[in-house]
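Feature request, filed as a ticket because there's no other form

It would be nice if the structure record came with a short human-readable summary line next to the tokens. Right now we just get the raw output. Example of a typical job, pasted below so the devs can see what we mean:
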Amino acid sequence: MVSRHNTHRCIGVFLSSLLVLVTDAFADEPPVDIGRRLELFVDTYLIDGMQGAAELRLHHPVRREVAIVHDAPWEGNGGGYHTVFQDDEVYRMYYHAWQTPLSGGQTHPLYIAYAESPDGIHWVKPNLGLVEFNGTRANNIVLAEINGGECHDFAPFKDTNPGVAPGEEYKAIGLGRNPHGLYAFKSSDAIHWTLCNGSAPVMTGHPFDTQNITFWDPTIGKYRAYIRDFENGCRGIMTATSDDYLHWSEREWLEFPDAPTEQLYTNQVKPYYRAAHILIGFPSRYVDRGWTPATRALPSLDLREERARTSERYGTAVTDALFMTSRDGRTFHRWDEAFIRPGLRTRHNWAYGDNYIAWHVVETASADDDSPRELSLYATESYFTGDSSRLRRYTMRIDGFASVFAPLGGGEMTTKPLIFSGDRLTLNFSTSAGGGIRVEIQDAAGNPVPGYALDACDEIFGDALECAVQWRGNADIAPLAGQPVRLRFALKDADVFALRFAGSITSEK
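Raw output as currently delivered:
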């Protein structure tokens, strides 16, 4: 018979052996080579561990002005599926324009409309003269049909493929129903569009009933697509890749480890413009609890009940916006909490179709005194509530989607082993007046590197998009470039949004 003492001893030996194996496995894990690229703390990719009250937390954009109202006769209460991007000196916007009476039935076909802006803040609807509506071409309709049938969605982008053919500098994908499928378009000026692939769909076999997305991904040197399908009755997202924008790989489901199964209406995935190796998405979450007391307590019950006469979900479903990121294009870290909540407001934000974020973020000037430039996002409002709908602008700091945070009581975060190039470490950070940040550089085993220990670090406080860390007045870390190091952050009432190992100030100017 084995004694209890020997049993505990055997368990202890086993656990010790297991710990050694786990430690050896981590020791054998190759360091992450980040060179000089910008790394955002939107996931745990660089994080090895956190201590104290440190945590990874999501931030939320600030509600600003209404950017554009879809109130022209060819627009209406169903304005949506917006695409926004900056194209040199102009910001371009595309969206579907339609009017659906609350009792059901469209009053005009669904069109694709266009707007533009010099700054991403003030928008105009130019008279394009392309499509006749009610006897005149004085409108901003950019596309009236796809292959002889009604449009459903249309998502253009500027093709940054180094091998893009002349005259195809802009591309787009859109759902057409003649026959049903995704159709590819090309353009030389982002206004006049021509069907590709002999006017045949480039993708079939899926519902595609959302804003389907395509773009050039410089990280893999291919085009990516993100489309709608259903899995066991649940709205989901599939992805595919292509070398030529016409022939697409077999579609694969996105994976969301540790995230609950939810109905995702749009996806809004695109490489982040400052760090193209990170794909950022703003999917719309679709929730339908039916006619509960809380549903009836939402704003504008009369409109909700009127919409429900066409389809019950038009009255009971609500939507908000989520945030997700990926390093490989298929496996996404998706935050459970809303990125944009409908909010304590009126009928403009609690309908099915509200809070859909446009594809994608753009950089704009800040209206706040001498503040640096910021990110602008745009989200739908007033969906299915009358004769018009609108798009509201939101803002947030550059790179400010999420951060490593610790309260005033303090917390620490240590990175995985990293290899970098450059000669200084810069942070995008924010603290309170009483808060601060210190950084220690360690070797791969976790030992402080002489001269870069925590007690040698000059505490950082304030708020900046890029600030160099110093150790007793010295920011030079060139001697450590090319060898594995860890970063240990000690935080109090502080956020670190991003880091970058940069070159010298002199060489970058």
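Something like this underneath would help us a lot:
Residues 62-397 form a domain with the Tachylectin-2; Chain A fold (CATH 2.115.10.20).
The first helix runs from residue 4 to 28.
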